[in-house]
UniProtKB/TrEMBL annotation:
Residues 269-591 form the Penicillin-binding protein transpeptidase domain. This is Putative penicillin-binding protein. The keyword Metal-binding does not apply. Belongs to the transpeptidase family. It comes from Prochlorococcus marinus (strain MIT 9303). The keyword Transcription regulation does not apply. The chain crosses the membrane at residues 21-41.
Amino acid sequence: MSGSRPLGRANQRHSGLGQQPKVLLALVLLFCGAMVARLTWLQLLEGARYRELADENRIRLVPRSPIRGRLLDRQGRVLASSKLSYNLYLQPRLLSDGNWPGLRDSLSQLLNLPKQDLDQRRRQGVGTDGYRITLATDLKPEQVLRFREQARSFEAAQVDVDVLRHYPYGTLAAHVLGYTQPITEKEFKTLADQGYEIRDRIGRIGVEAAYEPHLRGKWGGQMLEVNAMGEVQRSLGDKPSQAGKDLLLTLDLDLQLAAEKALEDKPGGAVVALDPRNGAIRAMASRPAFDPNFFSKLFTTQKEYDKLFASSSKPLLSRAMNAYDPGSTWKPVTSMAGMESGKFLPDVRLKTAACITYGGHCFPDHNGVGFGTIGYEDALRFSSNTFFYQVGVGVGSKALYEAAIKLGFDARTGIEIGYEESKGLVGHQAWAAKGRGWAEAGTTPWIPEDMASASIGQSVVQITPLQLARAYAVFANGGFLVTPHLADGAIDWTSSLRRIKVDIKPSTLATIRRGLRKVVQDGTGSGLNLPNFPQVAGKTGTAEDSTGGSDHAWFACFAPYQSAEIVVVAFAQNTPGGGSVHALPMARQVLQAWNRTRSS
């Protein structure tokens, strides 16, 4: 018995109870270490992210849209601004389908809105902001007041204010000013980094698009603290939105109004007026036109969109920057090619005829008999076709194309909204050899008939009214190719980069200028011999429409003759009867408005 161990100690050894405190301590230390590590990870490494998530649950940002900068004419008169629109919205997440009829009936009675319209708008679904439905737009002040008096009764409905683009003159200069539209989801993915919101609007065409960064401004907002129920507890701060900058345009409202009026009775056409000294555009009108306010509406049906975009009259197409056959307004270009080539000098005299045959086709003079033996000045005055056939065919397509390029044709003008501009076409031998843009190379050679047509601005020549105004500015300003523009900004538009000296002989320039003056003195443009009016030089044009329509009417001019301040190009699309009958009176209206403004 004396050699045996105590029973209690033996049992303790075999049961392992002696190790229990150590195991428990180890487990406690392990769990504590894990908790410390987790807290360290949460606090130090992921603290910022979780604080941000918590704030997102606790803080709501109510955005405040910026006011877009205004578009002003050169005298500061407003052409585009912003206006407030009060609109009725529905938040569908706060309303069950069963409760909709009751809310609809109450809103209909209170605001005098047709029930069927409210139902239709609700079926349209949420708008671009992704969380609410537009039930009614542009509410009247009394409707807004009645709603706000009973707003507590309409938890799921709200009246909110939106800032919309507004064009006070409607269709005036629509193609120049452009319009704004909500950004698309695809655009938002790119523009979000630039501060755009999903509810933002962006300039689509015209000046609105070209000067988007200048006009748009920056969003602001109010930070609100909310509880778990979404109820506002307090305001945490306010960040005002930053308005966009106003943009002073080169347009003159008086001239623009005159240009628009000149087009009223025409099926289509354009008027361009610019300052030949620096390229500043004073007026640019196109018909048919559209009302840019259409795109400011918060709710537009597909039928309304289709009516505008699918219209056969193409009201969204700017005729001022689309290309057409120029007819006789092109003859100064042929004159330049003849003189600059050295083959038909300024004092040349050619015998005109009833018609001249090229390639088996007899090309006629417009009077049917010719004008005898004449020089450049009288050829321009009478607009003799057979004179210019001889000059054009005599110098060839290369010389004519070179003259055209010097005057800015077959290229975009450099205007800020040039992404909407056609570069036109000046056909020539190399172009024909390559397939004319629609055939295989070598299958459409340049033929004598092409050269004859090109000499008088037909068939293989298509230019825009804006290009023609730029070219006539060269004759008006003493030989400089200017850059048309719609806003001066801080740019020197008379620098050598934007006002390029044209390689043209003084004798060539002087001859063309005298010829254009004779057109108005006692030629086809005599309708501009007005009493107490500055001397005008210009050229009429009647052009066959190479697409098969009726003739176009043109008139291009500048004034005063000795020291030009304005160039005007008038174009009446598919308006048969001649440039002196239709286009010249259009230009006269703009020139009269210009003369009134310079005299006042």
